[in-house]
Amino acid sequence: MKKLFKLFMMGMLIPLLSLFSCSDEFLDAPSENQLTPNDLPEGVTAFDGIAESLYFKPWFTFNDKFLIAVGDMYAGNAFTFDGAYSQFLNAQVTSQNPILTEGYVSLFSVIDQSNNLMKLVEDRKSELPEDSYKKSIAISRFMRANAYFYLVRTFGAVPIVAKAGSAPQPKRNLISDVYKFIKQDLEYAIENLPETSKKKGYVNKTVAMGILAKVHLTLNEYSECASLTGEIMGKQYSLIQEYGNMFSSPENNNSRESMFALQWKAIATEWGTQNTNQAYIVPATSGITGGGDGWGVYLPSISLQAGFEPQDKRKKHTIMTDGDFYPELLKNSDGFTYKKILSSTGANFRKYVVGSAAERNDVFFMKTSQNTIILRYSDILLMHAEAILAGSSSTTSVSALTAFNEVRTRAGLPNKTVLTRDELFKERRIEFALEGQYFFDLKRRGITEATAIISNQEVGFYSDDARTELISNKITPGSNYFELPLPQSAIDTNPSLLEAPVPFNFN
Fewest CB within 10 angstroms: 203, 330, 419, 434, which? Predict the structure, then answer.
C-alpha cells in the first residue's frame, strides 16, 4: 500500500500543477504565484512538497508589503517617506492602491490553490488512504481559513469561494457567514491534522486550535477563546529565551515558540519564494545588506518608540536606537553601531534584519529565508489573558496574570498584580511590533476606543540632524477607517462586488 501510495503521489504532481494554473477571473491572480516543480523542496514526496508550497509562494505579495503596510503602518506603528506607502501612513487608502490590490490577490491565491488541491484529492479519494486524504483536506482548509481571516478583518464582506470551479463572479457574503466558514474550516483542521507536526514548520491540531482561538477572540467569544488557549498552554509550545532569535536568523526558524509561520526560501535564481522584508527594513546607507537593497522604508514611529518601558529587553531586538551595538551585523567590520542620524524618526527597525550576502550563503538581493511568523506561543498567552478580561477594564485572575506575566518576565519587566485592558493591549503592541498585528488589535478594541488611541499617536518626524525638532502628525480616522476598500481592479472584473452582501449557501 505504501509503495502504491507513493507512486500515486508522484503521478498526481503534474495534474495538480496544471490545476493550479487556473484562477477565477475576478481574482486576476498573477501567474508567478502558481506552483512549479522547482518549488518542491528536496527529500519529500510530491504530496509533501505541494503541501509545503502552500506555506510560502501564494502568500508572497501578501508578505512583500501588504502585511506590514496594513498591520503596522496604517495603524501608527511605522513612518515612511516612501510615496508608495503614503496612503497607509495618512490613513487615506483608496481602492486603486497597488499594495492593497497585491494583498487581496495574494490572499485569494491562497484560497484558489487550497481549493484546487482539495479538488484533486477529492477526485482521487478512492485511491488514497483515509488518513492521507483527511490530512490533505485539513491542510488546505487551514490555509484557506487563514487567508479568509485576513480578508474579512481587512475588507469586511468578501466572496466565499468554497471550491475550485466556482462561479467566476461571486457576490460578497455576509461577514457573519465568512466567519462561520472560517470556523468550519478550522474545526475540520483540528479534527484531522496530526497531534504533532511531522516536520518542523508544518501545522498540526494545536496550531489550528490557536488560530481558531484568535477567531473567537475577534468575535468577542471570550469563553471559547479562553478554553482553547488554556488547552494549548504548557504543552508542546513555549517561549524561547532570546526574543530576538525569532527574527534575526533563519537558523532559528520554527523554534518551539513558532506555531504557524510562512516558510521562505531564498534561492538566487527564483523569485516569489523568499522573504523580502529585510530590503525594506535595513537602514539606508548602513551597508548592512552589502548589496543594492536596504532602503529604510519602514521607520518605527515616535509613538511606538515611546511605548517601550525602561529595561525592556525586546527594544533592542525590535528597533535600533542611538548607540545600539549589534556584533552579529557587519561581522567582518567588527559589528554595527547604530546612529540616529540614519532615520528621521531617530530609530530604525531591527526585526527581520538577517545580514549581508557576504556573510551568509542564504541572502541575496531582496531575498532572505527568514520565516514570517503568523502565530507564536506568546500570542496564545496574551490571548488567554485577554479572553479572561472579557472586555472588562481589569482583572486579578491568577490565570490571566500568570499568562501575561510570563511574556513580561521574558522581556525583563516586573510582574503585574492587576491586569488592565490598556496594559494588555500596550503589551501586545510591543510584543508584536512589525508583525502585522497592531491594526487588528486596535480594531478588536472597538471603533470608539481605537479611534481615540489612533488620534493621539504621534506619527510625525524630526526635521533636524539632532532629531529634536519635531514635525508633528496625528491621524484622525474616518468613518471607514476599519474597513479598507475593495480593490478597483477586482470590482472592474466583477461589478457584483458593489452589491450588498448576501447569505452564503452552506448546504
Answer: 330
- Residue 333 C-alpha cell reads as 567590520
Question: In whole angstroms, what is the distance from residue 193 CA to residue 205 CA?
Answer: 5
Beta-carbon neighbour count of residue 51 at 10 Å? Answer: 19
Residue 206 to residue 190: CA distance in whole angstroms: 7
CA dihedral 289, 277, 75, 174 (to 10 degrees): 170
CA distance 376 to 369: 18
370: which residues sit within 8 A by CB, 6+ positions away? 247, 248, 249, 250, 253, 264, 275, 277, 278, 352, 354
Strand pairing of 319-321 and 299-300? Answer: unpaired
* Helix ranges (DSSP H) in 20-56: 46-53
Residue type present at position 289: T
**Rounded Cα–Cα distance for residues 504 and 507 (Å):** 9
> Which residues of the chain fall below pLDDT 70?
1-50
What per-residue confidence (pLDDT) applies to 43?
40
Pairwise CA distance, residues 79 & 317, whole Å = 18
pTM: 0.92
Identify the pLDDT of residue 32.
Answer: 35
